[in-house]
Amino acid sequence: MGWVESLQKAIDYMENHLLDDISIESIAKQANVSEFHFQRIFSVLTDITVGEYLRRRRLTLAAQELSITDSKIIYVALKYGYDTPESFSKAFRRQHGITPSQARNYTGKLKSYNRLTIQVNLKGAEPMNYKIVEKESFKVVGVKREFSCVNGENMVEIPKMWNDVHIDGTNDLLFKLNNGGLKGVLGVCVDKRDSGAPLMDYWIAANHFGETPEGLLELEIPASKWGVFEVHGAMPDAMHKAWKEIFSEWFPSNQYEHAGTPDLEVYSEGNPSSPDYYSEIWIPLK
């Protein structure tokens, strides 16, 4: 099954089970990827989390039902996953800007979030610069934190981690320790699928030969074939744009699949706010 087809299968599964209490594990299984990778890819492509998509779609359908049927509000609330009318009303107002009662009486406007359909856009004006390299295993040293992937927690907390390492001097230390073949400070995403929970470790690290300095941890990056993608522009927008292009354009038009081992973001020295800043994305391929 191709990349686009597998992702669409997962979205179709969500749509067919909007009234059920489905898990991210069961959704990711439809795309034949881990929970971590599915949530990450989904968030990159849509700019929302899986949980937010399900919430928006359920409240869209709930509003439609209130508008065209005589169903009691408590019944609609329970049908779309809310235990009480109060919690339903709060979520409904947050999305639509009006109460369920106002929707029933046709007072105010409703917001409709439509069913997602994955499409491949053919673009040629801005070619993606990349290369395929094979690299033996290597060691990185740095700091790590564990994050939950539920409701996009990792997307919120990782930027805070970067801010912390800049403030406490860890970022400068890692540049000094970078004596390996991979130049720059690395952001390393490690899928913890074996934990049985939607968790990931995020490392801020450097490729380093020699003993691991006190206060830092070490991680072995396995040998792999890598897709190395150039990223040009100010952070974080340029990096986010590159990830979106990789998942929406490059993977659908190539036979490679993600190998499931850690991804790397490689940040060079220089001003990350500069429009000329250079960085890279390294993706393990199979």
Structure notes:
The protein is of the alpha+beta class. Helix content is 40%, strand content 21%. The protein folds into two domains: 3-104, Arc Repressor Mutant, subunit A (Orthogonal Bundle), CATH 1.10.10; 130-285, Regulatory factor, effector binding domain (Multidrug-efflux Transporter 1 Regulator Bmrr, Chain A, Alpha-Beta Barrel). It has helices spanning 3-16, 24-31, 35-46, 50-68, 73-79, 85-96, 100-104, 153-167, 170-177, 237-250; strands at 130-135, 138-148, 185-191, 199-207, 217-221, 224-232, 263-267, 278-285. It has an eight-stranded antiparallel sheet with strand order 1-6-8-7-3-4-2-5. The mean pLDDT is 91.
Number of domains: 2
CATH architecture identity of the largest domain: Alpha-Beta Barrel
Q: How far apart are the termini?
A: 15 Å
Q: Count the strands?
A: 8
Q: What is the chain-wise order of helices and strands? A: HHHHHHHEEHHEEEEHEE
Poorly predicted regions are: none
Number of helices: 10
**Overall outline:** elongated
**Main sheet makeup:** 8 strands, antiparallel
Strand content: 15-25%
Overall mean pLDDT stands at 91
CATH-defined topology of the largest domain? Multidrug-efflux Transporter 1 Regulator Bmrr, Chain A
Summarize the structure.
This protein has 286 residues and is of the alpha+beta class.
